[in-house]
Design goal:
The chain is of the alpha+beta class. It contains 17 helices and twelve strands. A five-stranded mixed β-sheet has the order 8-7-4-9-10, with helices on both faces. β5 and β6 form a beta hairpin. α6 crosses α7. The longest helix has 18 residues. The N terminus is likely disordered.
Length: 453
């Protein structure tokens, strides 16, 4: 097309069938040139019979320097469909097909590729029409039911870490044959966190975890060396706050360093009259022999009464060293991740200690040790010689204890592996968590309203 040629732009077109087999072709066009001037033309073409191939050839030769550009795609597609039918495009030879193709391209302003797609549609027996746009969507693997199920698991366990939750989902399907967890059993940790951010999950459950500082302290000034043997406890105290100058209940948290077997107790005061019976009851709940007792430098444990008790049981007592804040880090971590998470930060009156202690023994401690996965740290040394803890394996304390070499030799005389395995199989992880949550709610409901406000 030359520099001074004009382009006839098809603004709109309409094909109308009229009586007598006549066809009225109405077009509104604008003629645009290189000097950007524009004229609007109304062209009406009336044909009694469809154009023949010779007429089409003559039209193309006469309009060689005139271009058309259609606007209304739906009307153009309908005209293309009728024209192909009128010209019996299926029966034409190759040369005649090319002539009709050029005619269609000229009248619609479509490219060769666009017209090829329309003609292919016609040859396949379809009506030439514009296909609706369909946005590509990846198939949804995890349904609303799966997300609700994940939310219920998080609600029961109070939102554990991603790897620990994934371990629970795997155990629910593979160990306890709960079929509704089939898809969630294959859930990756990354996808688990994405589901927790989804709108469906947030409608079901929103969890807020405020950060609170915890103060800990404790007994001989050295770090215990368990040498992969269970029975070396890390012990700490968690206070449930004051109100009007009155002390609240105290939680005693004891965690085995190797297996992370955890026993929690409650006492109204930390004096020896109240503390010693609780300590004795807690030590009796560990299935293995206790070899070490490590705490911070607090006077509740560093005193002659506790030392006498531990010496009677032939338990080695140690305490944290100054400027070594990680000496009792395991117990401190469990204070926040377990005790504070479940018991909260609000004041609970000291007289409620007996009810809390009963809840711990019957529901909470069995749940922690048989149904709540923990991350097992593994020390990795990088190229610079720096040690780093990585967590590749998540398991319950009973699973960690069970895989230790010579586990039977570490157990107390009145405890067997079969007894522990039987206790672990009485309930599934989720059933135990829900039973524990129900018992905890009943416990909180039994407190006077003023105590939990």
């Amino acid at each position: 097309m030359t520099q001074n040629s004009r382009v006839l732009v098809l603004k709109s077109c309409l094909m109308q069938d009229e009586p007598g087999g006549r066809v009225r072709f109405s077009c509104k066009m604008s003629l645009e040139g290189a000097n950007r001037t524009c004229w609007v033309l109304i062209v009406n073409v009336e044909t009694g019979q469809p154009l023949g191939l010779e007429q089409i050839r003559a039209f193309l030769e006469a309009s060689d320097e005139v271009g058309f550009k259609g606007v209304n795609r739906e009307e153009m597609h309908g005209w293309v469909n009728r024209t192909l039918g009128q010209q019996r495009y299926v029966e034409l030879k190759r040369r005649s097909r090319g002539l009709v193709r050029r005619y269609l391209e000229k009248m619609t302003g479509m490219s060769r590729a666009q017209m090829t797609r329309l003609i292919t549609m016609y040859l396949e027996g379809e009506t030439v029409q514009r296909k609706p746009y369909r946005r590509h969507r990846f198939p949804q693997r995890y349904t609303r039911t799966d997300i609700d199920l994940l939310a219920s698991v998080d609600e029961a366990h109070q939102t554990l870490s991603g790897p620990a939750t994934r371990k629970i989902l795997e155990r629910a399907y593979y160990d306890f044959q709960e079929l509704q967890y089939e898809r969630l059993a294959e859930l990756s940790v990354a996808q688990l966190y994405r589901l927790r951010q989804s709108h469906t999950y947030r409608q079901r459950r929103v969890s807020y975890q405020p950060t609170r500082p915890t103060s800990v302290a404790i007994g001989e000034r050295r770090r215990p060396e368990p040498d992969n043997r269970p029975g070396y406890l890390r012990v700490d105290t968690v206070h449930q706050g004051d109100r009007d100058g009155v002390k609240g209940v105290y939680h005693i948290n004891a965690v085995d360093e190797v297996t992370q077997w955890q026993v929690v107790g409650a006492t109204p005061q930390i004096s020896e009259v109240y503390l010693l019976p609780v300590l004795e009851a807690m030590l009796a709940q560990f299935p293995f022999r206790i070899r070490g007792f490590h705490s911070d430098n607090g006077s509740e444990f560093i005193n002659h009464t506790v030392a006498k008790l531990l010496d009677k049981l032939r338990i080695e007592q140690t305490k944290s060293r100054p400027r070594h804040s990680n000496d009792n880090g395991l117990a401190e971590a469990k204070n926040g991740a377990v005790v504070r998470k479940h018991m909260g930060y609000t004041h609970i009156a000291a007289p409620q200690a007996a009810a809390i202690e009963a809840f711990y023994q019957e529901y909470f401690n069995p749940y922690l040790n048989f149904h709540r996965p923990c991350g097992v740290p593994e020390l990795v040394v990088n190229a610079k010689g720096k040690e780093k803890r990585v967590y590749r394996w998540y398991a319950t304390p009973w699973e960690i204890l069970r895989q230790l070499p010579g586990v039977a030799g570490h157990l107390r005389a009145d405890v067997t592996i079969q007894d522990l395995e039987r206790q672990a199989r009485v309930q599934s992880d989720n059933d135990a968590a829900k039973e524990m949550q129900t018992a905890k709610q009943k416990l909180f409901d039994s407190f006077p309203q003023r105590q939990i406000a």
